[in-house]
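To: structure subgroup
Subject: Chain for Friday's discussion

All,

I'm putting the inputs and outputs inline so they're searchable in the archive.
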Amino acid sequence: MPTTIRDTDLEILRYCHELRFCTIDHLVALTGRHRQAINLRLNQLIAEKYIHRYRFPNPNHKHIYSIGSQGYRHLAFYGAISLKDVPARLRTDELKPLFLDHTLLVTDIHMSLILATRNTPKRLVEWREGKELYESVTFFEDGKKKRLPVCPDALFQIEENGKRLAYALEADRGTTTRRTFDDKINAYWRFLEQNRQLKAYGVKWFRVITVTLTQTRSDNLAELSNKSVPNRLRKFFIFTSFRNALRHF
């Protein structure tokens, strides 16, 4: 018998879509519902393809959930998303564990911001992820033309008293090499220096916030950044551990 979608299921579907990839812990925290109740509904929604479940090869790793094909259609039917957001084919089975580990850190940050801005003067008014953010910047260095990608993990805005601040997120799990990190920072400050952010993202300015797993890693990356970013632009680069991230908003 087909699953009867409840109002509380719509909340689950919306969070699975908004977060892109999440665990049951994220859904419990955001909905305030009991873990067992969420788990029961997830199993039913998975059976009817409203939710997709990704299983890691490691049995100790938590299952990952994302919106399923029926879930997309249901959200579009109720006007929660646009029909253009419904993909022709889901590609969740092609995702790799390393990518998902990184994505879950992004989800942790996203969830923390949602919870921290509930019932407060501050509001999370925008959160964007995906290929729509992928840009590049071209410049000359040492007499040679160079082109670097600009690919934030997310772009979001926080509003307070009518004023919005935009942030480009870099979620760092400690696997990025020094050369890759240098290229990222170099690309960001060149991008800002060329004033590309207005056309690319529709914001006058944005701050690049790098969130790490440990404070030691954050301090080390901040030190490396200061060696390459011009003094006039250093205020646009923030480094913090996940534990301390909310203090910067």
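Points worth raising on Friday:
The first helix runs from residue 7 to 19.
Residues 114-248 form one domain.

D.
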